[in-house]
Design brief:
This protein is an all-alpha fold. It has a single domain, classed as Growth Hormone, Chain: A (Up-down Bundle), CATH 1.20.1250.20. It contains 15 helices and no strands. Helix 10 packs across helix 11. The longest helix has about 30 residues. The radius of gyration is 20 Å and the shape is globular.
Length: about 425
């Protein structure tokens, strides 16, 4: 049974690290802008099209390139300076947000342009996120990495509350273009923070004739290592299912708010903020855990609850009740997402860290893109409720069967800290 009876001393000790403190502060500024823009993109797309398919397509445009590029970036982060990669990616993202703002202000924005610019964001994100994921272990000792992941998630989900609330005010007062402008400026904070980090010199894993030689072989070795790992081999595919079926909820929220609950931008901000509040509470629980012991069972148990609650949301017609259900969905959803990332960081070998994390990242980011397009398209014909009911039910059943089979196999002792990888490494 997971332990929740510990204090926050682990979080305090992690934040005492200068590098991690600076990284967290810069990240917080950037994440706030990211959530303002994410809400604005969904709202603007729905306002222009009133189409669930377009909402799903825009979500897929941002996240589907990640599935192709993240594994390649995983290899590259094991070879090149990770901080420089992250800074370059942030500069590109700043330009993308500025273009969204300029086109919106000028009145030339269309759903097709949003799609193309989000596709550009999808190309940029693997460069930023894969480098960010592997920067954390460079700042902290291994026993603090899981706790650092939970703290980073807490910052992410704090922005998930504040961002939509700010975005709702911006949209209803000065216009949606200012949301994109704010995000563009917010990237300056994280760029400054990255440059201020005092990190050890990067030692590339690859010492071949060319730094780019053998990328395909190294990439496939990373996938083999990950899926032959005694923990990651079953954990990542299972979490991938949840990411495809239940995580697209946020990308479809503008349509759900309008079509199901007859809410405007203010109502959408409340729904997104309810999710953020639930995710913060889930992040606090994870931040209190001093070790990864029992984490795999916690992740799969939370996945069961996440599926049940998504199905329950499809049957909920009262707006205020829906806010409570969204809070609970996000609470268990962050257990699945952050818990699985913490577990991956804990059990993976240092030589394969970039590649295994890129596998986790590509699956958990591309999954919502595919799911959003599928559920959004079905919603055009049947409404949002039936596809959400089916998605939640399938997720809960598969997770419950996974938990049952692992118990049946006699996995009474957690392998979260002791799993030994097999295959290439």
């Amino acid at each position: 049974m997971p332990r929740f009876d510990v204090d926050f001393s682990a979080a305090r000790e992690t934040l005492a690290n200068r590098n991690f403190r600076i990284f967290t502060a810069g990240n917080a500024v950037s994440l706030l802008g990211t959530w303002v823009q994410r809400m604005a993109v969904g709202w603007l797309t729905w306002d222009l099209t009133k189409s669930g398919t377009w909402l799903g397509a825009v979500a897929m445009a941002e996240f589907l390139p990640i599935f192709v590029l993240a594994p390649i970036m995983g290899v590259i982060t094991d070879r090149f300076d990770r901080r420089k990669m992250a800074v370059i990616g942030q500069c590109f993202a700043l330009v993308q947000a500025a273009l969204l703002a300029a086109l919106t202000f000028s009145g030339h924005i269309t759903a097709t342009i949003i799609f193309v610019l989000q596709l550009t964001a999808g190309v940029i994100q693997p460069l930023i996120q894969t480098a960010r994921l592997v920067l954390v272990p460079m700042m902290l000792p291994k026993n603090r990495v899981g706790n650092a992941v939970a703290i980073t998630s807490l910052m992410f989900n704090t922005a998930r509350i504040l961002g939509p609330a700010i975005g709702g005010v911006i949209i209803t007062t000065v216009g949606v273009g200012f949301s994109f402008a704010m995000n563009s400026v917010s990237f300056i904070g994280v760029i400054v923070a990255m440059l201020a980090l005092d990190l050890p010199a990067h030692v590339p894993m690859h010492r071949g004739v060319s730094a780019f030689s053998g990328i395909y072989n190294d990439m496939t070795a990373g996938w083999r290592y990950t899926f032959r790992h005694p923990v990651l081999g079953w954990l990542i595919p299972t979490v991938g299912l949840a990411s495809t079926l239940t995580w697209p909820l946020g990308d479809l929220m503008a349509g759900i708010a309008d079509q199901v609950y007859q809410q405007d931008a203010g109502g959408l901000a409340m729904m997104t903020s309810a999710q953020g509040a639930g995710a913060i509470f889930g992040g606090l629980i994870l931040a209190r855990r001093p070790t990864a012991e029992g984490l795999s069972r916690l992740v799969i148990g939370a996945m069961v609850m996440n599926g049940v609650l998504v199905a329950a949301l499809s049957l909920t017609t009262m707006f205020w009740l829906a806010l409570g259900v969204l809070f609970a969905i996000a609470f268990f959803g962050v257990m699945v997402g952050v818990g699985s990332q913490s577990l991956t960081q804990t059990v993976v070998s240092d030589q394969m860290r970039g590649r295994s994390l890129s596998v986790w990242y590509s699956i958990t980011r591309a999954g919502p893109a595919v799911g959003a397009l599928g559920i959004g398209t079905l919603a055009n014909k049947y409404g949002f409720e039936p596809p959400l009911l089916a998605a939640g039910a399938i997720t809960a059943v598969v997770a419950a069967l996974t938990l049952f089979m692992r118990n049946l196999a006699g996995n009474e002792k957690s392998d979260d800290e002791t799993g030994t990888p097999t295959g290439d490494g």
